[in-house]
Amino acid sequence: MDAMPSSAHPPKRAAAADPPTHPSGGPPQRQDYAGLDVLMMLRAFTVEAERYVEAAGRAAGLSRREMHALNAVMGAERNGAAITPGALAEELMLSSAATTAVIDRLGASGHLVRSRSARDRRSVDIGSTPSARETGAAAFVPMAREMMAVIGRRSEAELAVLRELVPELTQAIGRARSTVSGSPEFPGSPASPGRAADPHGSTSPSS
Q1: Half-sphere exposure of residue 24, counting CA atoms within 13 Å on the CB side?
Q2: Rounded to whole angstroms, how far apart are CA atoms 64 and 101?
Q3: E strands within 90-194?
Q4: Which of 37, 72, 82, 207 fits a 20 to 30 Å CA distance from 14?
Q5: Domain 34-175 carries which CATH code?
Q6: How many CB atoms lie within 10 A of CB 133?
Q7: Who contacts 57 (Cβ-Cβ below 8 Å, separation ≥6)?
């Protein structure tokens, strides 16, 4: 029997190339590789989402940090999980002192409550109040409504691509964050020479 011609075999999928960089070591330009325009669109999406959170927080009388804290607490509750001050600090990437200050402010405004953990009476859980849920709905329902209207116009095939792509991009950002967090080579990091960490999770020049 004659051998199958090579053209009958399916072509091999090319391995993904690493994103190129400029000779100077700077970020790649738009023409350097396909997909950078999508990255810029995602950046614009993230910036606009943060601007929305800022505007919604101002309308609710809350800072962006407080809005993120409420979102983290209510997100844990939606998943049937409790969140401790330590877990909240990790979620917000804040120091223990800064997280306590956020919890205190949200507690004083009637949005969060502390309670003894049912799992460990030595531990404290943070929970949301009806006021927090009302504030969260007022803040985020308008954005969700607008976005769902757009999503609803896409086909199931298009949504399937997003369901695969978005989690992968989220994980990629997480890997990048672990790379830069505390890196002594990252300008302005706590590990950089001449910098000293302050108790609120930021940094300031050492004296």
Answers
A1: 4
A2: 14
A3: 112-116, 124-128
A4: 37
A5: 1.10.10.10
A6: 14
A7: 63, 64, 66, 67, 139
CB atoms inside a 10 Å sphere around CB 162: 12
Give 81: exposed, middle or buried? Use CB within 10 Å, 0-12, 13-18, 19+: exposed
- Packing angle, helices 36-60 and 64-78, rounded to 10: 100
What is the residue-level pLDDT of the chain in tens, covering all 207 positions? 444 444 444 444 444 555 555 545 555 555 567 789 999 999 999 999 999 999 999 999 999 999 999 999 999 999 988 899 999 999 999 999 999 999 999 999 999 999 988 777 778 999 999 999 999 999 999 999 999 999 999 999 999 999 999 999 999 999 998 888 766 565 555 554 444 444 444 443 333
Place of tokens 């330009």: 29
- Residue bearing tokens 């927080």: 57
What are phi and psi for residue 22, nearest 5 degrees?
-70, 160
How distant is the alpha carbon of residue 97 from its chain centre? Answer: 22
